[in-house]
Here is the input.
Amino acid sequence: AALLTTSSVIGMSVSAFFYLFKGVDDPKTLLNPVANRLLAYHFYTPKIYQLVVISPVGKISQIADWLDRNVVDGVVNLVGVTSLFSGETMKYFNSGKSQSYALTIVFFLALLGFYLSVMFVPKIL
Here is the structure.
């Protein structure tokens, strides 16, 4: 309460000095036009806040929304369709024997291992 009272008294004293002792008829003439505009428009705080905070956050949220709708949903839908398609395809190749499944898995693991080993072999010119 003491700080608020002190700052109020200081503000009233400064304004009384300018109005009573300087003999100013128009308070707009106390400051130059640039400072007067700064004070009149609150140091352009709303415009600066709009440019610095609101606009970038809006753009970032639009980009995040686009990525979520297109990229993330596309990848999730691709995984779902791929698993559904592979399940539907495998039911036609189902022989009921676990040996054929094991043979298929071993064959593709060997193929993957061969591919990876060839990929890291240095090429001799």
